[in-house]
Amino acid sequence: MTSELDNCRQQIDQLDRSLLVLLQQRLDLVNQVTEIKSQLGLPLYAPERETAMIKHCRDEAKQLGLSPDLVEDILRRIFREAYNSESTGRFNKTFVGKGNIVIVGGNGLMGQLFSRLFTQTGYHVQTLGAQSWDQAPALIANADVVIISVPINKTVEIIQQLPPLPENCLLTDLTSIKQKPLEAMLQQHHGPVVGLHPMFGPDVPNLTKQVVVACEGRYPEKYQWLLQQLQIWGAHIYPIAACDHDRSMSFIQALRHFSSFSYGVNLQQEHANLDQLIALSSPIYRLELMMIGRLFAQDPQLYADIIMSSTDNIELIKRYYNRLGQLIQLVETGNKTAFIQNFNEVSTWFGDYAQRFMDESRTLLKLANDNRV
């Protein structure tokens, strides 16, 4: 029996080696595809192609008696590695001209990310910071694009301090709030303006499948090339009015971050045993705990700025606080009927999204469980 076990294991090792060779061959082909895409000016990410490949392989898996979910999981992981490989290549440049890019705050993490992408694509990138602000007039005088990538609480102030920009120079920002920066840019510069918000952190390896919000400012025909460049890098552009964006961010960022902040403060002040919580947690709670812990691994000034960036955020948090008080009273009195009624009302409001989120979360829960030690 020991001999049979060893034999089986040797065969598995040989098959694993064959899989590795096939993976390397696939990545080599991906590099060829990247070169062709670059020559044709095609985007890094082709959603229709990915969807068709996954469907085809799931159908093939069924015919072979394999789990379609297993095959899809493997494919998506391979795709992610392929996108990382593609992102190290040279991208097609959409701007016609020199392409002088000045990034104000380019030494920050987000500024560095976009500096790398522009440079990799063939643009000439220069950065401006507090220590080099005396160079601003000379650099901006020859700029085709000026990008503001500074902390939220400094954005409007920095925009107002900009020296005159060339008439056709594009002015944009990467701030997570849009109304006030967009208004400041439109007032400071009479040329093309667009407000951008990358809906991701600076630690992403590439922009594949990432969302970049675009808020129209002035002369949209003059900044379409920039949106196209973002798409070539793999991003999805989501156009939205600045006021609608900021209202959504009040929920997505301010309220969510405040809730995580409050929960973390409560854990700390209750002297919770994190090792024990992790050991006893289900995958879903482990994910929730990870997201809370992730917040406290980052810059506190950034989250203070996000949460306190507007009176609308404060009012939303206060309404949330009042509703918490009402729900606490409901639980305190043991009113299960009212609890279930509230639950059902929210479930109805979510509609089909509830089941959709249930299905999508299963993949995340599997990953959380797979990474468990």
Automatic annotation (TrEMBL):
Keywords for the protein's UniProt record, in alphabetical order: Amino-acid biosynthesis, Aromatic amino acid biosynthesis, Cytoplasm, Isomerase, NAD, Oxidoreductase, Tyrosine biosynthesis
Amino-acid biosynthesis as UniProt keyword: yes
Q: Name one GO molecular function term.
A: prephenate dehydrogenase (NADP+) activity
Q: Which residues form the Chorismate mutase domain?
A: 1-90
Q: In which pathway does it act?
A: Metabolic intermediate biosynthesis; prephenate biosynthesis; prephenate from chorismate: step 1/1; Amino-acid biosynthesis; L-tyrosine biosynthesis; (4-hydroxyphenyl)pyruvate from prephenate (NAD(+) route): step 1/1
Q: What does the entry list under GO cellular component? A: cytoplasm
Asked if the record carries the keyword Oxidoreductase, the reply is yes
Instruction: Indicate the segments forming the Prephenate/arogenate dehydrogenase domain, all copies.
Output: 99-361
The protein's location, in the record's own words, is: Cytoplasm
GO terms, biological process: chorismate metabolic process; tyrosine biosynthetic process
Entries under PANTHER family matching the protein: PREPHENATE DEHYDROGENASE, PREPHENATE DEHYDROGENASE [NADP(+)]
This chain belongs to which protein, by name? T-protein
Q: What organism, scientifically named, is this protein from?
A: Candidatus Schmidhempelia bombi str. Bimp
Q: What is the lineage of its organism?
A: Bacteria, Pseudomonadati, Pseudomonadota, Gammaproteobacteria, Orbales
Gene that encodes it: tyrA
